[in-house]
Amino acid sequence: MVLPEQWPQARQAVCEARHQRLATRRLQSLHRLGWGSVLLILLGSHQYWHAVQMADATLALLPRLLDALQILIRSLPLGIALLLWFSLLLMPWYDAHKEWREWHRHDQDSDGLIPMLRFETWLTLQRVVLTPVLGGLMMVVWLLQCWLASDGLQAAGLIKTAYHAGEYWRLATAPWLHGNWLHIIFNTLALLYLGKRVELFARWPHLLLVLSISILVGGVASAHFLQADSVGMSGGLLGLLGFLLIFETLHHRLVPRSARRRLLAAVLLTAVMGLIGYRFIDNAAHLGGLLAGMAYGVIVFPPSASVDRPKILRVDRFAGGLAGLFLIASLLLVFMRLVS
Fold first, then answer.
1. Is 286 a catalytic residue?
2. Environment class of residue 252 by beta-carbon count within 10 Å: exposed (0-12), middle (13-18) or buried (19+)?
3. Which of 141, 281, 291, 330 would bridge 172 by S-S if both were Cys, CB 3.0 to 4.6 A apart?
4. What is the pLDDT of residues 243-292, one digit of tens each?
């Protein structure tokens, strides 16, 4: 079995078709980024003009403009628009541009791309089980939140006063809940991407273990460093992200085309979103989960030059089973709390 790029009779045509496809994708993403940037500027200008009108009319012009700028920075609609611009427009353009540039660099010597192409083909053809199940369960809980009249945050969210009063079980239930449709969509998409890579490279027990540990560490960090109540799986997802950063760095032969740059870009994007939306984003849970996932990768998977994926040991199955039972129990408790 060989790639089309390795077949002499089809090599030139396949390479030209791939190059054209990448160039078209790069151009389309650039157009979307341009139009999205124009809309963002228009929204920001409208919000700023509205903020100028809301500013203290007794102030001089310069202090009034600065006062309006502070109002603009605290604007919730603009913060959400910036998050959408970063995640749905800027990042896709960056990925398309990077892939096009990498292919263009090897245009004269496509043999250098064969290992990367084989790895990407293998990765695309692989199927995982646990990751889509976890994503589906998150969506089920969200639909239950929308259907029931109960307040999900009060029922099972990480209410800080309740946690400090002894309701520590909220650390396990809050990650299954989400605040709005944008929150659940972003988290589900992130889980499908990160979870698949963890499940494929490190195997299923470590997916459950990293997710469970990061959820708990992120929840504890949120409870002690953030006063606002919170929900969402972001702490666990940042744990998967941190784990992959360490794993793909320490096992470069197992992962010939590492996604480290994309993962680092995701960390930077999360940091930027945290700065922009600090009023409604749990940065403490994000940082706690990220550090927990990175620590797990360093401790459990030391550097290796092997090209084989790790085998599932008996202790891995046992620990992964315990983590799975923890997630199932937390999910059942969420259902009970929402219904009651």
1. yes
2. middle
3. 330
4. 999 999 898 888 876 677 778 878 887 887 777 666 778 899 999 999 99
Per-residue DSSP letter, 88: I
The residue written with tokens 């990765």 in the block is 123
CA–CA separation, 95 vs 46, rounded Å?
31
Of 72, 22, 71, 95, nearest in space to 269 by CA: 95
Contact present, 321 and 251 (Cβ < 8 Å)? no
The three-state secondary structure class of 158 is: strand
Do 227 and 169 touch, CB atoms closer than 8 A?
Answer: no
Q: How far apart are the first and last CA of the chain?
A: 57
Q: What are the boundaries of each domain within the chain?
A: 1-125, 128-340
Convert the pLDDT of each residue in 65-101 to its tens digit: 777 677 666 676 777 787 778 778 888 898 888 888 8
Give the pLDDT band of residue 102 (cuts 50, 70, 90): confident
Q: Which residues pair with 158 in a beta bridge?
A: 230
Architecture of domain 128-340: Up-down Bundle (1.20)
Would you state the pLDDT for residue 195?
96
DSSP H helices, 202-282, are: 204-225, 234-250, 260-276
Token pair, residue 200, equals 């494929």
In the set 206, 234, 251, 330, the catalytic residue is: 234
- Residue 59 phi/psi, 5-degree rounding, is -80, 160
Q: Is 252 a catalytic residue?
A: no
Per DSSP, 39 falls in state H
- The catalytically annotated residue of 178, 183, 251, 286 is 286
Three-class DSSP category at 230: strand
Which residue type does 42 have? L
pTM for this entry: 0.84
The values of phi and psi at residue 158, to 5°, are -85, 80
pLDDT tens, residue by residue, 202-248 = 999 999 999 999 999 999 999 999 989 999 999 999 999 999 999 99
